[in-house]
Amino acid sequence: MNPALAELHDKARTVLDGVHYDFFAGGVGDEVVLAENEAAFRRLALLPRVLRGGPVRTDLPALISPTAFHKLAHPEGELASARGADGTVLVSSMASTVPIADVVAAATGPVWFQLYVQPDPAVTEALVRRAERAGCAALVVTVDSPVFGRHRRDIEHGFHDLPAGLAAENMRDLTEPGLRDIAMSAEVSWEHLGRLRGTTSLPVWVKGVLHPADAVLAVEHGVAGIVVSNHGGRQLDVVPASLDALPAVADAVAGRVPVVLDGGVRGGADIALALALGATAVGIGRPVLWGLAADGEAGVRRVLSVLREEFLHVLTMCGGELTRDMVVVRGPRC
After folding, report:
1. What is the pLDDT of residue 333?
2. Beta 259-262 vs 281-284: how paired, if at all?
3. Which phi and psi (to 5°) does residue 304 adopt?
4. Which of the ends of the chain has fewer CB neighbours closer than 10 A, N or C?
């Protein structure tokens, strides 16, 4: 991890309640895939090209991934995250502790709404309408959660509910007055996704794709983009690292829609590797939470600034381009 980001992480760990730190940092089961998400980047290297003589991009190909309950990290919660995004796309979680309309109002750039399709179609539609009214620019449907992941750290702490005064505010006053629980359902199918697309003019992305055949199905069902993700290692502990799944998904999509890599990105070199393996951009999850906990809005802004500077340095050193043939496995080769 970049030293500046490591410093923010260490400060966040100091200021956060230990139970809440473990909620953010932890994963499912034995946390094998949680560690693999980061380790996958360390196994690879880039072979730079030289004397290319062309212009180098200046933007950060990244968005802020959806993560829940930001008020556990900072009193201003998602409002500080939205301001700190500083123009970067923020994918705001359905489990936000701030209503989506307030998040959009605070943001300095586009806000997308992350959605779990609910068993009750009326509830799903109410959530979509809420996102539309708020001014969200896209929907990101998380598709890798037929049930909640079993997080050993949360189970050991007995952490199952938010502290008093905090709630998943987007679940309030939907089809009837009051606060609803977020529900997961194994019965959600591609047909549900098709019906969802028919109810909104917003672009619909899917997040949580690892199998290339599912990527093909997603394109056939008219999605606007795909996020290759294993939910930050929080759903199933026997899946591959997101980076390891990326090339096959990118090949299956074949440029028909954008592909975002989510999981394990901890530095600008990681972003470069993901782009070389076929990603259009990456999602930044836990580093944003560490910046938020450490220094609120300014901490989020700092995380994105560090990543941008490091990525652009790596890109320039690689000749301004990133292609699959530049990626090699570290260590001796026969």
Report:
1. 58
2. parallel
3. -70, -35
4. C
| Active site annotation includes 231 | yes
Cα dihedral: 20, 24, 26, 28 (round 10)? 110
CA dihedral for 76, 85, 91, 237, sign (positive or negative): negative
Cα gap 288→60, rounded to integer Å: 15
Per-residue confidence (pLDDT) for residue 334, from 0 to 100: 43
Regions in the chain scoring below 50 on pLDDT: 334
pLDDT for 287 equals: 98
DSSP 255: T
Side chain identity at 20, as an amino acid letter?
H
| CA separation for the pair 100, 71 (Å, rounded) | 14
For residues 79 and 55, is the Cβ–Cβ distance under 8 A?
Answer: no
Count Cβ atoms below 10 Å from residue 30 Cβ, excluding itself. Answer: 11
Residue for token digits 């050991």? 156
* Inter-residue contact 91 to 78 (CB < 8 Å): no
Residues 286-313: tens digit of each pLDDT: 999 999 999 999 999 999 999 999 999 9
DSSP state of 75: T
Cβ atoms 307, 60 nearer than 8 A: yes
Provide the β-strand partners of residue 241. Answer: none
- Evaluate whether 55 touches 320 at the Cβ level (below 8 Å): yes
Q: How far is CA 233 from the centre of its chain?
A: 12
Catalytic residue among 151, 160, 231, 313: 231
pLDDT of residue 3: 87
- pLDDT at 332 (0 to 100): 66
Q: Tell me the two tokens of residue 254.
A: 């074949």
Residue 239: per-residue pLDDT: 98
Stretch (H or E) spanning 197: helix 190-199
23 three-state secondary structure: helix
